[in-house]
Amino acid sequence: FRATGLSTFSSLSLSLSSGSHLVCSLVHRHPDWRIINLDNVSLHCDCSDLLCNSKWYTSLFPRQGDVCNSRLVNHIFSTESIDVIFHLAAKTHVESSFECPSSFQHVNIDGTGILLGAAHQARHQLQRFIYVSTDEVYGAGVEQVFDESSPLRPSNPYSATKAAAEYLVRSYWDQYKFPIIITRSNNIYGPRHTIQGTLPKSQIYNVGTTCEIPIVQLARELVTMVSLVTAVNDWLEFVPDRLSVELRYPIKCEKLQQLGWRAQVSWAEGIRQTVKWYQRNPDFWPDTSEDQKPTREEAGHHPRI
User: Fold this and answer.
1) Rounded to whole angstroms, what are the CA distances from 264 to 74, 255, 267, 274?
2) The NAD(P)-binding domain covers which part of the protein (predicted)?
């Protein structure tokens, strides 16, 4: 759960690991902004990489940073003048959502409702509520390419809760003309990534590129880049697929591109930078020793490297 803003311009935002990238980008590009960061630190979220050199940066960690803590969220909006909310906080991972769907509903839907309610009742008028959703709300698209008007057909508890949260966010536009923006992005990679631009008050934007790469090809590229080996297949271990596997999430992004947005880093350069960053930051890697084996969800259905 992350919040950002100037000393005279305040904003609030929520997120997991991709949110740390957003916070770092805001800190570096806008050192005079006041940034409040609430984060329910979990297994899949390590915020130790945040480079918080701004005098306006504040972080509130595990016990205080739960998006479902209505008392805390209401307190923030009653004591801070929040202008913009970046809402990225969510429980993720498809397989885990089947194992415990109620926790996904609580965080992704109830948490979003708590934030919307607090923002709506705040004494300071909100300028933007930016909800970061996922392309998975469209469901699988083997032949079809989705645009922002495509129907939502989520196929697992995770994407269903993200879609439900979208409807909740949009209901605040319908009822109160709440200044919302919804983004639906492809898979995000790399140590840092964010979007800039001036957007209308109630819109939905797909965020992605036309670059698609099979997971096995990606695994082989990573093995080659990290280890410089020739017998790549010897470094791959295949694990069972999930019961339901969606092979593609193709989306159209012309609507966002009309505003001037373009992907600034090619896939080849982006994956090179990502590998290089992880090589320079070995402490960021999880413990993969025999007595700390990855969980079923961490392993997923992908080849392990």
Assistant:
1) 38, 17, 10, 15
2) 19-196
